[in-house]
Amino acid sequence: MHAFEYHRPSTTKDALALGAQKSEGRYLAGGQSLVQAMKLRLSSPSDLIDLAAISDLKALSGDAGSVTIGAMVRHADVAASPAVQKAIPALAQLAGIIGDRQVRHMGTIGGSLANSDPAADYPAAVLGLGATITTNKRKIEADKFFKGLYETALEPGELITQVAFPAPKRAAYMKFKNPASRFALVGVFVADFGNGAVRVGVTGAGACAFRQAEMEKALSQKFAPESVAGIKVKADGLNNDLHASPEYRAHLITVMAKRAVEAALK
Amino acid sequence: MNAPLIGARIQRKEDYRFLTGAGQYTDDVALPRQSHAAFLRSPHAHAHIKNIKTDDAKKSAGVLAVYTGADLAAAKVGGLPCGWLITDVNGQPMKEPPYPALAQGKVRHVGERVAVVIAETAAQARDAAELIEVDYEVLPAVTDGMKAKGAAALHDIAPDNSCYVWALGDKAAVDSAFAKASHITKLEFVNNRLVPNAIEPRSANASYSRADDGYTLYVASQNPHVERLLMTAFVLGLPENKVRVVAPDVGGGFGSKIYLYPEDVVVTWASKQLNRPVKWTSDRSEAFVSDAHGRDHVTVAELALDKNGKFLAMRVKTTANLGAYLSTFASCIPTILYATLLAGQYTTPLIYCEVNAVFTNTTPVDAYRGAGRPEATYVVERLVETAARELKLDPVEIRRRNFIKAFPYQTPVALCYDTGNYEATLSAALDMADVSGFEKRKQESLNKNKLRGIGYACYIEACGIAPSNVAGSLGARAGLFEAGEIRVHPTGTVTVFTGSHSHGQGHETTFAQVVADRLGLALEAVEIVHGDTSKILFGMGTYGSRSLAVGGTAIVKALDKIVAKGRKIAAHLMEAAEADIEYDRGVFKVAGTDKQKAFGEVAFAAYVPHNYPLDKLEPGLNENAFYDPTNFTFPAGTYVCEVEVDRDTGATEIASFTAVDDFGKVINPMIVEGQVHGGLAQGIGQALTEGCRYDDSGQLVTGSLADYCIPRAGDVPSFKIDTRETPCTHNPLGVKGCGEAGAIGAPAAVMNALTDALGVKDLAMPATAQTVWRTLQRKAA
Lengths: 266, 781
Description:
The complex is a heterodimer of chains A (266) and B (781).
Chain A: E1 5-7, H1 12-21, E2 26-28, H2 34-39, E3 47-50, E4 60-62, E5 66-70, H3 75-80, H4 82-87, H5 89-95, H6 101-106, H7 109-115, H8 122-129, E6 132-135, E7 139-141, E8 146-148, E9 151-152, E10 160-166, E11 170-177, E12 184-192, E13 198-203, E14 210-211, H9 213-221, H10 225-229, H11 246-265
Parallel strand pairs in A: 1-3, 2-3
Antiparallel strand pairs in A: 4-5, 5-10, 6-7, 6-10, 8-9, 11-12, 12-13, 13-14
Chain B: H1 15-19, E1 35-41, E2 47-53, H2 55-59, E3 63-68, H3 69-74, E4 106-107, E5 113-119, H4 122-129, E6 133-138, E7 162-168, H5 171-180, E8 183-191, E9 203-209, E10 214-219, H6 224-236, E11 243-246, H7 262-274, E12 278-281, H8 284-290, E13 297-305, E14 311-321, E15 350-358, H9 373-390, H10 395-402, E16 409-410, E17 416-417, H11 422-432, H12 438-447, E18 450-460, H13 468-473, E19 482-488, E20 494-498, H14 507-519, E21 526-530, H15 547-573, E22 581-584, E23 587-590, E24 596-598, H16 599-607, E25 622-627, E26 636-646, E27 652-662, H17 669-689, E28 720-723, H18 741-758, H19 769-780
């Protein structure tokens, strides 16, 4: 790790001011990706602006219709939140299987979304539920947020403040883990909002999370496992690495989608 | 006076300090005026070094020195030696290319050390290392052992990249048996390359003292005396008496900390140049490219059988990838510790094995938990199971028909098994695994859309290595004895010094049990000291599951001397004839009388010799012993694995795993179970999750724990394990060794189960979910 200056502002305003001032600086959320990259000397920011002391970013609230999660809320807190468990149990379940116990007690939803790791879990839920991401500047719809490999709609210096998830009628997340890293080799989040409104968010399979239109269409006609079981996802453009070929990932999307629908119906 | 300690489940004495963070590892050692080293490593698998510019690094903040291979050559620092000479099929010595501590003109694998920076802090050393400019001329690289011949030569002395072609057995007789066989089973497979990944990365901290011209090296090592011997005699040319090597608490080794490594040599040499202590601690990324790897065989194996399933002959041809250089014991692993084990538990009368050992542009390969024996067991047990399926015989029955039943048994591959009872471990395992209920469980799995399979492995290993004269005749350049010393203190407590080294095995407890039991003392009265050349008389260290069988026996021999001297002292104190003195659990007694002296009283008399036969006997009570075994020990057992495969994803779950081992006499069953659990986890890892992969340019693709999958607790089942005992016949404790068995037997058991579940002849390790899914796809097509 290279040397850096550490800052711990207590307001979003101060954080943004520092961010504007330190052109080679980075915001530090949970640090579960950034700090690892720094330790490997792959990332060498001049300044780290730690957001952990900003209480506004740590709010979590919910009612029957939605939950709103502050950017600095840790995965473990989402998993354990009665509000999330009540309104969107599938979201609490997803948060409870991110990484390992240590990661869940450090990593944050804002950090995960801003990083847009192709195999992170939250992006599947953000797309699957049609969440709204609020930043210091604007509100961004889920469908306009993920742009590519580690690439989002966020502009330089723009900071996620909270994420709002509408509550579906039923939903579930199924993840097939990379055996080594335990990231999603493929993760599928399925949400049924009723009246034929179904969303399917897929992570781990492409450059960034994406929706699966064919499955959404089939499930909107009939929300049942057999609606997706026969869908052959195209392998073109899917990730190819040591652990899974595009063909295997395409196959796993169907298997995980089917299992997610089964779980949602339970 | 005390309950027997042999066979008792005693909690480990060392765990208090480990669990409370009070362990002292090499990296915890901070010396006055400590400096820190960072190694610049080659990013290329094969390249000429045209130029190295170190000017900027030398000017960087905190830097004390920058050294390259040229500096070591100028100082006449030698290359790293190989400890075992293999003689090839033509009677020629193996090719031994130079293994410089820092690259000289050429790099031969990614991660090879090119330069070292020594600075006030570790971060400053790393920063400066990034400023070194190296001009490389990249050469074509080869990483696959099967492609080594004909690839660009790594070493001038081995133009075809061959280190040796070695063979064991009567080829003509074997070929003739195959010609007459009624059935031949043939398999071709890869024994996948593994990265050891001890939890504590390697570390070395060397200091030099002008006061006595002496060196002290703290190092994460399994055998500090061997480290000192190799480094002083072969590399640095230092007098052995001026070098102290300390291996303090060591966090796991699995073989990877047996060897003398370049980093150890460089920090030791540099400590005198700078007159400062120099410390280097590996990070996980460095460990992946610089710790010796394990396995990496490509094998064609054949078994000839008669129509009743009797084994007639075995023929094995293996290409062993040794990596870029000969690591300390690399040459003997795929030969002496491999081909000699191919008889397994069976009476196969004829065996021929040919080994082609090659150099490639990969990290050197050496012993890793099991070392040759897992590879041999995989050959034998995959062949046997496959033969049973081909002949439509029960895999248990075919084994029974071929078991060795009378001992001692001379195999056709040099070893002589002293004892064993293979039926005992097999039948116990069948019961514990509820093999008769398998078909029912298989149906239940099918009802859940899952495939279930069962597989067996009846392994044997050779441990407690071994007679030095035999090893010497086979090319060993070291002795393989062990040393121990018993120091009885005046108040009757005991300190034991052993040349074995504990880095997770629990010697401080097991050895103390042996000593306390034999002397009839409380466990707390016995302290075990290991890992310091300035305290221990000598030691060959810990590897090959040898500590108790060899090191423990050395201690017992020294104990016998203590008791013998104690009897003389007691005879004097009680005015009796020495012949009438009996020693019984802490008390010297005059036979047939009620006269007795406690062990502590005799010890006190030895150190306060007011009433003592000074004319006939030296005062003091301190004895040492060296023990060189007369044979290997032969632990053996049966493993039964059941797997369940998710047909949709290919994911394999170990549904159950039963292990019944014969380790001879068991001193502490709890510690033995822990060793078996760890070995099984590593064996399951080799079968299902672990596989080292290089790309075509020689980059290590699995260079981190995010890509190289070590099994987690959740990947292994709750093991069902037990032991059966046939005591070793040639050591006084009757022990055989237990450290490696799990890793030796498990891969074959898992793969036999998985191929059974899938209904295929063979499958590559690691059988990841994707591999299994592809196999199912191919079968369906």
